[in-house]
Amino acid sequence: MQARTASCSCGQLSIEVDGAPLGVGICHCLACQRRTGSVFAALAAFAPPYKVTGTATEYLRLGDRGSRYTFRFCPVCGTNLFHTEAGAESAFVAVAVGAFADPHFPPPEDSVYDCRRHPWVVLPPGTKAYDKDPD
Fold first, then answer.
1. How many helices and strands in the chain, by DSSP H and E?
2. Which of 2, 5, 58, 116 has the least CB density, counted as fewest CB within 10 Å?
3. CATH topology of domain 3-118
4. Its pTM surpasses 0.90
5. InterPro entries under this entry (predicted)?
């Protein structure tokens, strides 16, 4: 299996995952825009196990449909590194794609909350766009 490591800006917090991503997506919801400070969040889901090194601060956010997401970020530099969904922790962890610092990382397959996508953001060819969250 291929191990990948994503880390925060200062290097204090990192997560190591194994294997190919279960999926790669981008989210344009307003919560992700505010959380990342960007116009969308790029995330890759990985199956457990994974290894976290360093100390993380947690933030719990409720999704539109009542799902609970625990976001982990570095208390030193503020990088939002990964999150889990309550009840699905044993299924996957979602990691910020940019934190892998790999320009060859696979492109997104899905784009959610496309209704909030900035009009100048162009999706890669073949990306499935969903007006909201398809789940």
1. 1, 11
2. 2
3. 2.170.150
4. yes
5. CENP-V/GFA (IPR006913), Mss4-like_sf (IPR011057)
